[in-house]
């Protein structure tokens, strides 16, 4: 029997399928789009086309769209799932997870595989994936392009934390003829500093700090956060699937 | 006889059209939050009835009392001593302030960065959509925060106000000064009511208010049981309405509820499945109809077993000694009792942290949710020390900041569900 | 709760009538809840308190009213509006 974790985030939906020996046999990534209900239907279809029958699988849904998966056996919050997934990916070590999601950023402290404490940002989108996405759009870049370009820039800062104000700042920087690479640098630094400030409320001394979420492959963002928190970050190419992996693990262990 | 509250509201000079919008949303909100529960104590019928006509039944009683020459004092805070008003045959009533409905009217005159409780209170008066705010003969404010102090100046242009100066510290000289404030308030009450406060009448009033406190405490005691006989939402409703009701009837109803709860405990009747996580809510008050946080908690696999708030233990803990004596001695006893309320307006306020830890143990809680009404600087700042102290005690704590809007409900659910999952 | 489900609201001229019937229903063991009357059915009726009865209990409630000659204003059925997951507060 398969164990399936479905993480419907605000931007991307991640699906992980584990077989009975706990191997991840499928990892699917797709945009969430307008409707998480439709997304859930699409997942069902693509799994079935791969010969994975939903009906005899154990399924845990997580993420902000977790209630929109009618065929899930259970809903578990992304905080618990990210913790479980990151713990698994990082060889079961105690750690602090920084998850930069599409609409919120979470700092999660894990001890012996259990969530010990967590911090989540307010309604505001500063320090989240959405912030980078909006800025990238404004600058006519993809998120990956923005991250790469940022590495070559320097010297500019965006002072507004608020995404709406920050966007006007970026627009006026563009208008002033500021080099795009410097603006990209400012965008990445802005999100890094917001994340670092959130992180300062959690004790990260002597802890492994693990980065998950859609931006974990943005190497320059990782470096900027490392500089600001004065601590090395660990991540993994599978880290953006941490929530879905955690959900699949919960499905497997609790029999959902 | 047909009840006709519309005529009464019209006579009170209320904005009927706008008020009707509030009347339209309340039944659905109450249905979702309260009537979705099963196996509630039968004694909750009383409070359900009161809510069903929250702007009808009690306001009509107050108006009848005024026809008999009684005076009504509208109050905003648990520091205003009800005993003094009761001793002069006056009536105390709470005022509207717990709904987003009133906030826009408040924002017409107050900065947006004012706490929703103040904005809603001022808005309820200025928007003419709260009957209690039309009925009261005298409004009693206090100096528990900067937002209120300035709001009184704006309200005072519209209604007669008396302000009690609450000390900011609890040294002996501060308590002595508070006693003087109470004595001054007594004079104002005597002038407004035309009735003299005698030592005998004050002693009787002290007994009346103590009996109400004791009855509420009995209900809270029942929440210490392993099998919870009542939801947190239901107790919150009882407490919210206690601010508006006649104190003797309130005591009677709370005692009747406590009887039923004690019977339920004996029979092992619970309104939650076994293993439901027990939560202590600490922080800022929840004026009626603010049920948001309790509802989210209690639909996320947890139960609220106690509130360390002004709409909770701060309202009824500690009694005034019923030793009688001169007016001066009784004012001192009243001052002592009220100075035991641990509000974030005091510095230092370490006794509040001790209260939270004590209540967490007494009510055997699995975790504490420390809630702050947005823009309440005092409780927000104190949240840091509260969280620190709880962590030292090994008690899990979740800090939440919220207001009266629905906008953050989904985010709150995620946090609260995650917190409950964390509790195991 | 499914949208198809009906909720019966017993309406009153005043809350005294309502509380009287509620205690009679309690005595007879008929499940009932005191509710604020939904605005859509209150009309010009002054009293905002009603008694909410589920379809399976409405016959027993009517019998209780008949037997006791209890006073009420009207009985109205509307689709169930109660939804604890709505997160719509007031």
Features:
heterotrimer, A: 256 residues, alpha/beta, Nucleotidyltransferase, domain 5, 2 domains, five-stranded mixed beta sheet, 40% helix, B: 424 residues, four-stranded parallel beta sheet, 53% helix
Structure notes:
The complex is a heterotrimer of chains A (256), B (424) and C (90). Chain A is of the alpha/beta class. Chain A has two domains: 3-79 and 242-254, ATPase, nucleotide binding domain (Nucleotidyltransferase, domain 5), CATH 3.30.420; 94-235, Nucleotidyltransferase, domain 5 (2-Layer Sandwich). Chain A has helices at residues 36-49, 78-89, 129-138, 143-151, 163-175, 180-199, 219-229, 242-254, and strands at 3-8, 12-18, 24-31, 58-62, 74-75, 95-100, 105-111, 114-120, 208-213, 233-234. In chain A, the strands form two sheets. A five-stranded mixed β-sheet of chain A has the order 3-2-1-4-5. Chain A has a five-stranded mixed β-sheet with strand order 8-7-6-9-10. In chain A, strand 6 and strand 7 (105-111) form a beta hairpin. The two termini of chain A are 12 Å apart. The mean pLDDT of chain A is 92. Chain B is of the alpha/beta class and 424 residues long. Chain B has one domain (5-21, 39-422). Chain B contains 19 helices and eight strands. In chain B, the strands form two sheets. Chain B has a four-stranded parallel β-sheet, sandwiched between helices. A four-stranded parallel β-sheet of chain B has the order 6-5-7-8, sandwiched between helices. In chain B, strand 1, helix 5 and strand 2 form a beta-alpha-beta unit. The termini of chain B are far apart. Chain C has one domain (6-79): Alpha-Beta Plaits, CATH 3.30.70.1530. Chain C is an alpha+beta fold. Chain C is built from three helices and four strands, in the order E-H-E-H-E-H-E. Chain C has helices spanning 15-27, 39-42, 55-68, and strands at residues 6-11, 33-36, 49-53, 74-79. The model of chain C has no long low-confidence stretch (mean pLDDT 93). Chains in contact: A-B, B-C. The interface between B and C is large, with 45 and 31 residues.
């Amino acid at each position: 029997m398969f164990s399936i974790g479905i993480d419907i985030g605000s931007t991307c939906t991640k699906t992980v399928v584990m077989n009975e020996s706990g191997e991840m046999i499928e990892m699917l990534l797709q945009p969430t789009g307008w409707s998480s209900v439709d997304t859930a239907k699409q997942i069902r279809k693509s799994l079935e086309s791969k010969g994975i029958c939903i009906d005899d699988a154990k399924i845990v849904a997580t993420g902000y769209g977790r209630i929109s998966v009618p065929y899930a056996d259970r809903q578990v919050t992304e905080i618990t799932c990210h913790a479980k997934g990151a713990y698994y990916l990082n060889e079961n070590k105690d750690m602090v997870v920084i998850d930069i999601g599409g609409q919120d950023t979470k700092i999660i402290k894990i001890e012996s595989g259990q969530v010990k404490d967590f911090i989540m940002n307010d309604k505001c989108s500063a320090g989240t994936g959405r912030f980078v996405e909006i800025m990238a759009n404004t600058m006519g870049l993809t998120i990956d392009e923005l991250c790469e370009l940022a590495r070559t820039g320097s010297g500019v800062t965006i002072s507004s934390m608020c995404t709406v104000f920050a966007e006007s700042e970026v627009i006026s920087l563009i208008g002033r003829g500021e080099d795009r690479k410097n603006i990209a640098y400012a965008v990445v630094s802005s999100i890094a500093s917001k994340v670092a400030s959130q992180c300062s409320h959690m004790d990260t001394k002597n802890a492994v700090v693990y980065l998950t979420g859609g931006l974990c492959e943005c190497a320059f963002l990782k470096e900027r956060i490392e500089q600001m928190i004065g601590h090395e970050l660990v991540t993994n190419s599978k880290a953006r699937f941490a929530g879905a992996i955690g959900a699949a693990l919960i499905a497997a262990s609790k029999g959902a | 006889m047909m009840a006709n509250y519309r005529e009464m509201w019209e006579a009170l000079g209320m904005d009927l059209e706008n008020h009707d919008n509030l009347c339209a949303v309340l039944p659905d909100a109450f249905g979702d939050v309260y009537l979705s529960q099963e196996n509630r104590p039968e004694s909750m019928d009383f409070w359900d009835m009161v809510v069903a006509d929250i702007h009808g039944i009690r306001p009509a009683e107050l108006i009848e009392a005024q026809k008999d020459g009684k005076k009504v004092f509208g109050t905003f805070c648990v520091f205003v001593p009800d005993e003094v008003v009761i001793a002069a045959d006056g009536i105390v009533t709470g005022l509207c302030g717990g709904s987003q409905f009133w906030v826009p009217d408040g924002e017409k005159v107050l900065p947006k960065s004012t706490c929703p409780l103040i904005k809603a209170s001022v808005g309820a008066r200025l928007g003419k959509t709260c009957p209690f705010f039309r009925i009261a003969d005298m409004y009693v404010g206090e100096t528990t925060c900067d937002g209120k102090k300035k709001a009184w100046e704006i309200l005072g242009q519209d209604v007669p106000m008396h302000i009690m100066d609450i000390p900011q510290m609890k040294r002996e000289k501060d308590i002595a000064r508070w006693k003087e404030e109470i004595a001054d308030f007594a004079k104002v009450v005597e002038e407004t009511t035309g009735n003299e406060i005698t030592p005998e009448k004050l002693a009787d009033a002290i007994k009346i208010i103590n009996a109400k406190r004791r009855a509420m405490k009995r209900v809270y005691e029942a929440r210490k049981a392993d099998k919870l006989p009542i939801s947190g939402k239901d107790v919150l409703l009882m407490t919210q309405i206690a601010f508006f009701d006649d104190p003797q009837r309130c005591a009677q109803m709370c005692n009747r509820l406590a009887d039923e709860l004690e019977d339920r405990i004996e029979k092992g009747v619970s309104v939650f499945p076994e293993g439901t996580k027990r939560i202590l809510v600490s922080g800022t008050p929840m004026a009626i109809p603010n049920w948001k946080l309790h509802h989210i908690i209690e639909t996320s696999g947890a139960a609220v077993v106690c509130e360390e708030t002004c709409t909770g233990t701060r309202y009824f803990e500690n009694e005034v000694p019923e030793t009688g004596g001169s007016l001066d001695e009784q004012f001192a006893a009243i001052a002592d009792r009220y100075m035991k309320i641990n509000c974030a307006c005091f510095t230092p306020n370490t006794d509040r942290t001790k209260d939270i830890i004590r209540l967490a143990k007494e009510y055997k809680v699995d975790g504490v949710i420390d809630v702050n009404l947005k823009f309440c600087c005092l409780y927000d700042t104190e949240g840091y020390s509260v969280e620190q102290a709880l962590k030292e005690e090994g008690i899990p704590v979740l800090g939440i900041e919220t207001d009266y809007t629905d906008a953050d409900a989904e985010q709150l659910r995620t946090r609260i569900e995650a917190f409950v999952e964390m509790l195991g | 709760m499914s949208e198809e489900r009906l909720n019966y609201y017993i309406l009153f001229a005043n809350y005294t009538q309502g509380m009287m019937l509620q205690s009679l229903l309690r005595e007879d063991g008929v499940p009932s809840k005191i509710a604020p009357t939904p605005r859509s059915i209150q009309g010009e009726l002054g009293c905002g308190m009603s008694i909410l009865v589920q379809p399976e209990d409405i016959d027993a409630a009517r019998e209780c009213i008949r037997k006791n000659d209890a006073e009420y204003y009207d009985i109205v059925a509307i689709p169930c509006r109660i939804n604890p997951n709505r997160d719509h507060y007031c």
